[in-house]
Amino acid sequence: MFDLVLGTNNAKKLIELRLLLPDDQIQLTSLAQIDGSIDVEETGLTFAENAALKATEQAVHLNRWVLAEDSGLTVDALAGEPGVYSARYAGQHGDDEANNDKLLSELKGVPDEKRSAKYNCYLCLSDPQGSVRLEANGTCGGRIGHARSGDAGFGYDPLFIIPEYHRTFGELDLTVKRALSHRSRALREFIPKLMRLISSLD
Length: 202
What we know:
Blueprint: E1 2-6, H1 11-20, E2 26-30, H2 47-62, E3 66-75, H3 96-106, E4 116-126, E5 132-144, E6 160-162, E7 167-168, H4 174-180, H5 182-201
Parallel strand pairs: 1-2, 1-3
Antiparallel strand pairs: 3-4, 4-5, 5-6, 6-7
């Protein structure tokens, strides 16, 4: 069994990842289950840089394999904002309601055809010595609605409309989200690489 630490305290991200990773071969633990983990400062200018920071610094500190991810929303009409600041767009980290309110305010008066957006996810795996061993990324395109709809998911999900479904991620069930989301697409690229790496370590 390969022991893997997920470099986040976000319980909802842990649930999504557990549904996608082969649990018969990988023992997945979140930072919330580990005493002595550190808070890594996200000073990177890109999702990829932040994912690498969170993976390598935590891995060295814990002396364990760490999978970290950095994800967020980029909105074309806002020149890519909120980007790496997605979780703290309104100021306080993780305040989904405030972040959604700010996004709606920034897009006030912007017509549907100019409200295109993209969810981005970058994954980074570090070995216990702090060396990056694997990376992967995934995206999911959509459009920002004019009001919240649905209470599933988290983050900007109640505003993020999937065009082919005419619904937000907040309205779609987890099965659909798992098939379409930026995180699941990044994982589908990542998992085969991880399984090859695990095999090479045996």
